[in-house]
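Support request from a user on the community tier.

User writes: "When I paste my C-alpha cells into the form, the page sometimes reloads and wipes my input. The last time it worked, I copied everything first. Here is what I submitted, just in case something in the input itself triggers the reload:"
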C-alpha cells in the first residue's frame, strides 16, 4: 500500500480542521461568546501569530506599494467573510452552514466569468443550477420557514461568496509573497475592521467564560485559521489548484457529520440530498473553476 505523501497529509489536515472549526465555533458562540467579540479576539490572536512567524522566518514585512490596493481589497473581503461566518453560525446549525459552504467553487467559477478568466458553457450553467437546487433543499431541510433559518442560509451563501472572492483576489499575490507573508499583511487589516464593527457589541461581552471556551478559542485560531492557511497554499503550489480542490470538496460532508456527532445537531434527508446536489455541481464545474480555499 502506497504511503500518503506530505501534500496529501497537509490536505487531509486542512479539510479536517476546516470541518471541525464549524462545530467548535458553534459551540463557543452557544456557550458565552458573542459573534463579533469572538471574531475580534480570534483574528487579533491570528494576526499576532502570523506577524511573529513571518518576522522570525523572513525577517521582513516588506510589501511593494503597487500591491497595497490589492491587499486592502483582500482585507475588506475577509472582513465581510468573517462577519457573515460568525452571524451565520449564531442563527443556524453548523451542519447547515457546512453544506452551504460546499457552493464555494461555484461562486469562484462565477467570479471567473465576471473577470473574464472563465468562459460560460452549457455544462457550467447546468452545474450552477444543480447546486442552486441543492442549496434550496438544504434551506428547506433546515426549517426554511423560520426567519433564523432563512437568515442563516443567506449568511452562509454570503460566507461562501466572500471566501471565493478573497481567494481570487489573493491568488496573484502568491507569485510574489509566501502564504504566511500575505496573511501577515491581510489578517491584521481585517482585524481592525472587525474590531471597529464590534464596538457596539464588545462592551456587552462577559469575558469570564471558563478555560474550556478559551481553549477552544485557541484551537479555532491555531488550527483552522493559521495552520490551514499555510497547508492549503503550499499544497496548491506543489500540486496545482485542480487536485487540491478535489480534497476540499470533502469538507462540507465532513463538517456536517462532525456537527451531528459532536453537537448532536439534526440532519434531515432533505439536507443530505441538498448537499449531494451541491457536490454534483462542484464535480461538474471544477475543471472550469478557479481555486477557492475554504476556511473561515
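"...and here is what came back when it finally went through:"
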Amino acid at each position: 500500500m502506497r504511503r500518503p505523501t506530505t501534500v496529501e497529509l497537509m490536505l487531509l489536515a486542512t479539510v479536517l480542521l476546516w470541518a471541525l472549526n464549524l462545530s467548535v465555533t458553534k459551540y463557543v458562540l452557544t456557550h458565552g461568546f458573542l459573534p463579533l467579540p469572538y471574531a475580534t479576539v480570534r483574528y487579533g490572536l491570528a494576526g499576532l501569530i502570523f506577524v511573529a512567524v513571518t518576522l522570525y522566518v523572513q525577517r521582513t514585512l516588506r510589501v511593494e506599494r503597487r500591491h497595497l490596493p490589492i491587499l486592502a481589497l483582500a482585507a475588506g473581503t475577509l472582513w465581510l467573510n468573517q462577519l457573515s461566518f460568525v452571524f451565520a453560525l449564531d442563527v443556524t446549525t453548523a451542519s447547515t452552514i457546512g453544506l452551504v459552504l460546499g457552493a464555494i467553487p461555484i461562486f469562484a467559477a462565477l467570479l471567473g466569468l465576471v473577470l473574464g478568466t472563465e468562459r460560460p458553457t452549457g455544462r457550467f450553467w447546468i452545474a450552477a443550477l444543480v447546486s442552486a437546487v441543492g442549496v434550496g433543499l438544504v434551506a428547506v431541510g433546515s426549517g426554511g420557514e423560520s426567519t433564523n433559518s432563512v437568515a442563516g442560509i443567506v449568511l452562509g451563501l454570503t460566507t461562501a461568496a466572500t471566501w471565493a472572492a478573497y481567494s481570487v483576489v489573493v491568488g496573484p499575490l502568491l507569485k510574489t509573497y509566501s502564504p504566511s507573508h500575505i496573511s501577515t499583511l491581510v489578517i491584521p487589516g481585517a482585524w481592525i475592521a472587525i474590531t471597529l464593527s464590534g464596538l457596539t457589541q464588545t462592551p456587552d461581552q462577559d469575558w469570564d467564560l471558563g478555560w474550556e471556551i478559551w481553549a477552544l478559542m485557541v484551537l479555532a485560531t491555531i488550527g483552522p485559521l493559521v495552520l490551514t492557511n499555510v497547508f492549503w497554499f503550499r499544497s496548491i503550489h506543489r500540486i496545482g489548484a485542480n487536485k487540491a480542490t478535489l480534497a476540499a470538496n470533502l469538507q462540507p460532508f465532513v463538517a456536517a457529520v462532525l456537527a451531528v456527532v459532536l453537537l448532536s445537531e439534526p440532519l434531515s434527508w432533505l439536507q443530505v440530498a441538498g448537499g449531494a446536489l451541491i457536490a454534483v455541481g462542484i464535480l461538474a464545474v471544477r475543471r472550469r473553476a478557479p481555486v477557492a480555499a475554504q476556511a473561515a
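Agent notes: The reload is a front-end session timeout and is unrelated to the input. The chain has twelve helices and no strands. Residues 288-294 have pLDDT under 50 and may be disordered. Escalated to web team.
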